Amino acid sequence: MTGQSDTVLDVEALDVRYGPVRAVRGISFGVARGGITALLGANGAGKSSTLMAIAGVVPVASGRVSLFGKPTAKTTPDAIVRSGVGICPEGRRIFASLSVEENLIVAGTAVATPQVAATRREEMMERFPILGERRRQLAGLLSGGEQQMLAVARALMGAPKLLLMDEPSLGLAPQMVDTIFSIIEELQREGISILLVEQNAALALEVANHAVVMANGEIAGQGAPADLAGDTLLKSAYLAA
Ligand SMILES: Nc1ncnc2c1ncn2[C@@H]1O[C@H](COP(=O)(O)OP(=O)(O)OP(=O)(O)O)[C@@H](O)[C@H]1O
C-alpha cells in the first residue's frame, strides 16, 4: 500500500491484553481518507483500549495497525504523533497548572520548529477565540467545554492528518456538545480524517460516514451510520443514546 490508499488507518485482527484480560479481541475496521469513523459501545467495550493501541500507548498483543499505509509495529507513541496523528485523550489531560498558551507551547515542541509552532499557536487562538481571550489563564480554570477545545487545539499543533478523539463530549453541557460536534465537522471539511470514540451514539452517527459498534472487546456490527441507526436490535443492545 502507498500513501495514495483510500484509508488512513487500518486495524486488522487487533488484540489488546492487560495480563489475562483480553480487552480487545480480533477486531478489524478502518478510517477512510477524509472520513469520520465512529467507534461506539458501552463502557468497558474496549473502545479506549483500541484507540490507545492505535496511538502506540498500549501494546498490540496481536494483529496489525497500519497508519497511512504503513504498519506501526514497534513505532513509539511520539513517532506516531510525528507521522501525522493528533490525539485528544479521554478526560482531556490538559495541564491544569499551566496557562492556555503554555499548554500549546508544550504541545508544539515535539511536533514543529519554534517558528512553525508559534504560527500555529496564533492560528489556534483565532480558530478558538475563547482560548485567545484566556491565553494567560490557567487551563484548570477553563470550563469543561473550553478545556475540550484546548485539547483539540493541542492535538492540532502537529497539523495532523488523522485525529483520534476519545469521548470529546463527555460531561459537557448540551450546547457545548453541539459546539464540539461543529468543530469535528469543520475539521473534516478541512480534510482531517477522524476516529471518534463516543458514548453519544446518536450524534456520532450523524457526523460519521462509517460506524463500528463494540461489545465485550469484539465488533457487534459495523457499516453505514444510517444502517446501524436503523438496526433496532443493535441499538437496543449496545447503543443507549
Ligand atoms: N489498564 C488496565 N488494566 C486492566 N484492565 C483494563 C485496563 N484498562 C482497561 N481495562 C479493561 O479492559 C476492558 C476495556 O476497557 P476500555 O477502557 O478499553 O473500554 P471502553 O469501551 O473505552 O470503556 P470506557 O467508555 O469506560 O472508557 C474493560 O474490561 C476494562 O476494565
From TrEMBL:
GO biological process: L-amino acid transport
Molecular function per GO: ATP binding; ATP hydrolysis activity; branched-chain amino acid transmembrane transporter activity
Domain ABC transporter: 9-241
Entry keywords, A to Z: Amino-acid transport, ATP-binding, Nucleotide-binding, Transport
Record-linked SMART domains: AAA
UniProt keyword Nucleotide-binding, yes or no: yes
Pfam families listed in its UniProt record: ABC_tran
PANTHER family in alphabetical order: HIGH-AFFINITY BRANCHED-CHAIN AMINO ACID TRANSPORT ATP-BINDING PROTEIN LIVF (PTHR43820)
Homology family: Belongs to the ABC transporter superfamily.
Name of the protein in its database record: Amino acid/amide ABC transporter ATP-binding protein 2, HAAT family
